[in-house]
Write a structure and sequence with these properties.
- The protein is mainly beta.
- Helix content is about 0%, strand content about 45%.
- The strands form 2 sheets. Strands 2, 4, 5, 6, 9, 10 and 11 form a 7-stranded mixed beta sheet that branches. The protein has a 4-stranded antiparallel beta sheet with strand order 1-3-8-7, with no helix packed on it.
- A hairpin with a 4-residue loop joins β7 and β8.
């Protein structure tokens, strides 16, 4: 079992930036591929970005060029830098871990955090 903890959410104006972090105290995150997903009320969870153990990255088209996923194995942390935020980015953002080499769909992830709220105002 891996308990993931997200942090860094909050309220920001459109065009602003936030950095989300995902960490765990129980395992070494470097042994997992990590993904970020987001979900709004009444909608399905949506893939945002993923990073493999070798730090290859993948992004949803909607965030490509604005969001950057990275990992710092010395801090056991995966970060999601979000720039140029838009109101439609408002959602609960969750990180997830998988033992697969890469995954961009929800069902391929084994462990999930509780999520952190990101709200982008006009």
């Amino acid at each position: 079992q891996v308990r993931l903890v997200e942090s860094g959410g909050g309220l920001v104006q459109a065009g602003g930036s936030l950095t989300l972090s995902c960490t765990t105290s129980e395992r070494t995150l470097s042994t997992y591929a990590i993904g970020w997903f987001r979900q709004t009320s009444g909608e399905e969870r949506e893939f945002v970005a993923a990073i493999t153990r070798r730090a290859n990255t993948y992004y949803a088209d909607s965030v490509k060029g604005r969001f950057t996923i990275s990992r710092d194995n010395t801090k056991n942390t995966v970060s999601l830098q979000m720039n140029g935020l838009k109101p439609e980015d408002t959602a609960v953002y969750s990180c997830a871990a998988t033992g697969r080499i890469r995954a961009t769909t929800e069902k391929k992830y084994d462990y999930w955090g509780q999520g952190t709220q990101v709200t982008v105002s006009l």
